[in-house]
Amino acid sequence: MSIIDYYFWINSDWAYLGADRLEAIAVRCNATIRYKPVDLLDVYARTGGIPLGQRAPERRAYREAELKRWMQRLNMPLNITPRYMCPNGDLASRFTIAADQLGLNVAALYKAILEAEWCKEQDISDAKVLLAVAATLDLPGDRIMQGALADEINALYRQYTDEAVAQGVFGSPTYVFNGELFWGQDRLEFLEVAVAAAPSPVRSLCQS
Fold first, then answer.
1. Is residue 72's pLDDT more than 60?
2. Closest by CA position to 147, among listed 89, 104, 88
3. Count of CA atoms in the C-beta half-sphere (13 A) of 131
4. Angle CA(105)–CA(107)–CA(112) in degrees, nearest 5?
5. Which residues, at least 6 apart from 98, have a Cβ–Cβ distance to it below 8 Å?
6. Confidence class for position 207, pLDDT limits 50, 70, 90
7. pLDDT at residue 25 greater than cutoff 70
8. Is residue 206 very low, low, confident or very high in pLDDT (cuts 50, 70, 90)?
């Protein structure tokens, strides 16, 4: 089975826009996704990235224009400047990792966390918000939170971040397949081509 390493920031609007399409690719190509939330500000610090608030007005304006284009194309509305925009994502990232380690539906959880920030005006750095998100999915929020606060989960979060930098990741979302990077949800078509073309006994299951 093909494996896609998925590095993303829990505050990434672009990750939100690409979430459903990534899952669809995995289904079509019988691939497994390994979900790896990262500390993107740390990644930026080590790879020359610039946080959104520090970018030139021209770059911020273009980001908004591109978001509007993709929102229309995908029919996925979001608030480009939400009330709680890009808060500290450490707890939410660890919460996502803890759920994954428990074998829970991490795909639904991380997308719901992103939706809480970008569509529902909620502060995802607040533990109460994360517990409420888990409750809407019938997930055991208290158990997940207990894991999120454990040293082992924090160590895994740091490991994912270090691993991302080592793989050449510099932005979110980034998909890595067979050592090849695909940065941005607008590269998902290229990712699917690569997964479909990879030698595999189940290659015939990939459908266009």
1. yes
2. 104
3. 8
4. 100
5. 144, 145, 146, 147, 148, 150, 153
6. low
7. yes
8. low
Confidence class for position 203, pLDDT limits 50, 70, 90: very low
Taking the C-alpha atoms of residue 35 and residue 164, their distance in angstroms, rounded to an integer, is 12
DSSP codes of every residue in the chain: --EEEEEE-TT-HHHHHHHHHHHHHHHHTT-EEEEEE--HHHHHHHHT---GGGS-HHHHHHHHHHHHHHHHHHT----SS-TT-S---HHHHHHHHHHHHTT--HHHHHHHHHHHHHTS---TTSHHHHHHHHHHTT--HHHHHHHHTSHHHHHHHHHHHHHHHHHT--SSSEEEETTEEEESGGGHHHHHHHHHHS--TTGGG---
Instruction: Select from 18, 29, 5, 31 the least CA-distant residue to 110.
Output: 18
As a whole number of angstroms, the distance between CA 14 and CA 184 comes to 7
Largest CA distance in the chain: 49
pLDDT at 202 over 50: no
Architecture of 3-205 per CATH? Answer: 3-Layer(aba) Sandwich (3.40)
Residue 8: phi and psi, rounded to 5, are -150, 155
Per-residue pLDDT, 1: 81
